Every structure is written in structure tokens, then in C-alpha cells.
Amino acid sequence: MATGLARYLLNRVFTLFLTVFIAATLIWIIPRLSPVNPIDAMLGRMASGGGTIENSGAIMEQLMERFGFNDPWYVQYWLYIKNTLTFDFGLSTNSFPTPVAQMIGDALPWTIGLMMVALIITFIIGNLLGALMVWEHTPRPWKAVIPAMMVFTSMPPILSGLLLMYIFSSTLPWFPLNGAYGIRVEPEWSLSFIGSVIHHGVLPAMSIVVVTFGFWALGMRGLMITVQGEDYTVLAKAKGLKKRYILYKYMIRNAILPQITAFALKIGMLVAGQVLVERIFAYPGMGKLLYDAILTQDYPVIQGVSFVIILMTALAVFLVDLLYPLIDPRIRLGG
Amino acid sequence: MSDPTNAAAPETAAPDMAGLTKRQLKRMKRFDNPWNNPKLIWGITLLMGIVALGIFGRIFWDTDLVFTGAVMPSQAPVGFENLRGQVGLASSPLGTDVAGKDLLALLIVGAPNSLYVGVLASLIGMSLGIFLGFTAGYTGGRVDDVIRVGSDVMITIPPLLILVVVQASFGDITLTMMSLLIAAFVWQSPTRLIRAQVLSMRESGYVQMARLSGASDRHIMFREMLPNLVPYLFGSFIANVTTSIVTAVGLEVLGLGPQRVPTLGRVIYDAIDSAALTRDMWWWWGFPTVLLMVMFIGLLLINLGLDEVSNPRLRRL
């Protein structure tokens, strides 16, 4: 068993590295298949910003050299892999000469903060509602209300975002329309700043919560039904334990395990899934960074953000793979 | 004990000869034919309604003329006032956008397009998923490793990236190309799930029994395992249609879908782009959103219904 586990672990760690490596290679190749030259796009923006640019040919040549686009592909690839390993993603072509790593460093906390809060809220609400859907002592009104709330399930968060913006920002001016904090607030550790961040974060977080809690509720519903018929639940009832005690300590506790695996996977998808929400709320996170980079053909930023997304997702998949055999022993180790 | 079916039955209902109330009899009949499931029927009805809108809408509504933006721009729906205080015209019952395109015409053409992308992408993704999942789970070893790494890689890469490059290369993409692209991102989830199912089935009693009695691999795969996966595959397919539509709509709303074909996501993109939200042109983005919600509710109901068909324990609830 011990050697089996060690082999399984080693296999998974190897897979993790291989996955990240292949994916990193792909995101290096994919943008290069595009016919649009990033330096062209960059000069185009310069020209539209400040009239005509003299000797643009020379500038272009210099920039091509600066970004290493003149090197043979294997040199470019080697440098890319070498630098990526040290999280050095080069300089942005769009907001030249800001280092990409710095832009990611600025954006990442916003995305992770917003998404973790949203994820934890949905996980709790969704699982609780899913459990209540099955529990035989759920009050009648709840049994009718919960399925009705499912209306929003599996809607793209951008649509719930639009609805929430319309209701709570345009019609009722309760929350700001965009940004992560107020224009007149200095980003510092002060109460007014933190308050502003929370005020600005409510709608984006809500738009994610509203569309994802149903995913957890439905999953929990299926799991609870299995738990309901188990001997230990029957025994707990026969012992005359309190109804709520049985619900929390016996049923939910046993049903929630596979949900936790799903939770790990969702953490990985966190960045990728947020592009839309950040776009419409103009929230300064990774999603918006990626979207803007794509619009401006900013290769270094695209590669940097994609790499961070890849790393996070691959790590989450790795974690799930480790947890899975613990939850379902029928999945054999080693495979 | 505390059986919810008994507790729910009205006491006044007359018991028949077997001592069962009418309500219980009705329930029993439903058990006889699991496909006669209200959720399933409602879900299919909603989706058929959208398909019908696409078919009959084209017959009864002039979808060509209003495309070009020939009608009054920024017109509110009938019974509402637009920004200039004019009451909506009967010639465009759901209002028009800033270019004067008729919303009803956009919905009639756009809704089936969104559905088409979802179904096609899901069909391709599912076929790949079944094939790869079975191969990985049943064969194991190196083949399994290759498929797993491949699916891991695809999970990690953001679809946005590939779409943008394809668009830059082709100038514009068609609905079918969009479906193919999305299919490249929805095959790994069924692959993973089917692989897990096959792995756990491989250890189950009936498969081992079949193997002991000398059945061939082909027999075990197609006769013993596949039938057990069928109800589950239906559910996975519908879930995939939803994911595909969500992905497609998401990309379209970012302005990255087909440029010249109207889709629901594209209409919403135009609305956001023209600041419809702050200009209070709620009908512009509101109607496509509602239609998409109807679509998602339909798919959700079908999925819940299928769950109940394949898992009888759910039917008691």
C-alpha cells in the first residue's frame, strides 16, 4: 500500500509538471499563429494617439529587436521557458515599459479576493439549500422557494451581472457601477478604503453567487439522497436524536465530501471564469487584464496571465486527483 | 416510519380497494413510466418553444427587412416610452436598437443560432468524451496517461486565447466554427467522468462475473458497461449543451463571437457597447437575457427530469 501510494504520488507530480509544460508551450505557440504583428499593433496605437510617427520603420526595427521577435524561434522559445520558470514574463507591449509580472501582481489580489469571497458564500449557501431540498423536515415554503431560485443557475455570470447592475446601480443607486474602489479614495489600509472596496465588490460577487449556488445545491441534493437511506441515518433517527443534529452531524457531514473535491477544482477555474464579470464591472483583476491584452495583442501579458491561470488550474486538478481515491476507494491507485 | 408520501396524502381522499389514496395511485402510475416526468416534459416544451419561435417567426415576421436598420432607432416596446418620450410602435413590438434593428427579428434569428452552437458543440464534445473516456478507463496504462494529460492541458488553457487567434486569422468565424472551437473545450469533462465510471464499473460484480465467464472485451464494453452509462450520458449531454451555450454567450458578449451572424450574445454585446444600461434602453439587453434564461431553465428542467428517470430514489421528492 505504501509503495503504491508513493508511486501514485510520483506519477501525479510528474503529470502536473508535464501538463504545465505542454500548456505553457501551447500558449507560446498559439499567439504566434496569429497574422497580426504585435509591434504593428503597438505602433498603430501610438500613431492614433499622437498623429504620425516619423521614421516608424526604424522604431519598429528597434522594438522587434528589443522584444526579441527577430531571434530564431528556438531562441525565443528557450528564453520564454527559462524566464517563465522564474515568473519573469517580460515587458508589456501595450503599457510599455511596465513589467508584466508587476501588472499581474497588481491584478491578482483583486481577482483572488473577489472570487474567494464569492466562492465561499456560494459553497455554504448552495450546499445548505441542497441539503434542505432533501431533508424531510424542511418547512413547506422553503421546499417551494428553493427550486424557484434555481432559475438563475447555469446562466452566464455576465447576464446576472447586467440584471444586478440594472436593478441596484441604475434604477436604485445603491452600489457603484464599476471599479474596485472609489475614485476619491486613496488605496491604503484605512477604514474608508476597505469600506469602499467592499461597497464596490458587492455586485460583482453577487453576480457570481447568484449563478453558481445552484450548481452546489443540485450536487448536494443528489448526495443527500444517498445519505438519507444509509443505515447510520436510520440508526440516528431510531436513537431519537434531534432532527437538526442528525441533519448537520450525520447527513451533511457525510454528503459534503465529494463537494469539497469539486470546490478544489473551482478554485483553479477561479481566474479563467471571471473574465466576463471583471469586464462588465471594469474590475481591475486578472480577467480584465487578459481581456485588454487580447484586444491590444499584448503577447507578453497574454502569456503571463495565461500561465498563471494554467498553473492554478493544474494545481487544482492535481489536488482533486489526490483527494479522489480517498473519497471513492473503488478508483484504484496507480491506474 | 415517517414516510413523506403518506404524510402528504390528504386524509379526505377516498381509499380504493387496495387501500391506497388517489394520490398514491397517481404516484404509482408515474413509477410505471418514468419518462412521464413533469420536469422533463416542461423542459422539452420550453426548448421546443424556442425552436418554434425560430421556425414560425421567420414565416410570420419579416426578418430580412428589419435587419438593415430601416425602422425607427431606439424605439421602446409597445406600451412603453422611449428616451424621447415617444410611445412604442406596433411595427416593432419589442422595440429597436440604436441602429433601428428590430429586436423581435433579432431574437427570432438569434435564439436558434445560440441553441445550434450549444447542441453541435455538445454533440462533438460528447462523442469525443465517450470514445476517450472509455479508452482511457478500459485500457489503462500509457493510453490512459496520454489522454489524462491531454485533458488536463485543455482544462487549463483559456478558450479566449484560441478564439482570438482563430478570429485574427480568418477575419470572421461562422457559427459552425464557433461550435467546433467550443467542442475543443467541453470534451474533457465527460471524458473524466466516463473514465471514472468505467474504472469503478470495472471492479463491480457483474463485470467481473462476465469476465470470469470468458466474455470478450468488446462484449464487456458494449453489452455490460455501455447500457449502464446511457441514462447518465443523456444527463451529461444536456449539461454540456448548457456549458457550451454559456461559453458561447460569454464570448459573444465580449465581442469575440461571429461578427455578422446575429446571436443572443451578440445583441447583448451591442447593447453594452452602446451603453444601453445607462441610457435606460432595458429592452435591448433585457429581452435576449430573458430568452436565454428560458433556454437555461428548459435545459435545467430536462436535466433534473433525466436525473429522476435514471435514479428512482429522486422521484419520491
Provide structural commentary.
The complex is a heterodimer of chains A (about 325) and B (about 325). With about 325 residues, chain A is mainly alpha-helical. Chain A has 14 helices and no strands. In chain A, α5 runs parallel beside α14, α11 runs antiparallel to α14 and α13 packs across α14. In chain A, about 35% of the residues are buried. Helix content of chain B is about 70%, strand content about 0%. In chain B, α10 packs parallel to α11. The longest helix of chain B has about 35 residues. Chains A and B meet through α1, α7, α8, α12 and α13 of A and α5, α6, α8, α10 and α12 of B.
* Helical stretch tally of chain A: 14
- What can be said about the biggest beta sheet of chain A? none
Q: How much helicity do the residues of chain A have? A: over 70%
Average pLDDT reading of chain B: 79
Helical content of chain B, roughly?
55-70%
Order of helices and strands of chain B: HHHHHHHHHHHH
Quaternary form: heterodimer
Which helices and strands occur, and which strands form pairs?
The complex is a heterodimer of chains A (335) and B (317).
Chain A: H1 2-33, H2 38-49, H3 56-66, H4 73-85, H5 100-134, H6 140-149, H7 157-171, H8 191-228, H9 231-238, H10 243-255, H11 257-269, H12 275-281, H13 286-295, H14 299-327
Helix pairs in contact in A: 1-14, 5-6, 5-8, 5-11, 5-14, 7-8, 7-12, 8-10, 9-10, 11-14, 12-13, 13-14
Chain B: H1 4-8, H2 22-32, H3 38-60, H4 103-139, H5 141-156, H6 159-170, H7 175-186, H8 188-202, H9 205-212, H10 217-253, H11 264-273, H12 282-310
Helix pairs in contact in B: 3-4, 3-12, 4-5, 4-7, 4-8, 4-10, 4-12, 5-8, 7-10, 8-10, 9-10, 10-11, 10-12, 11-12
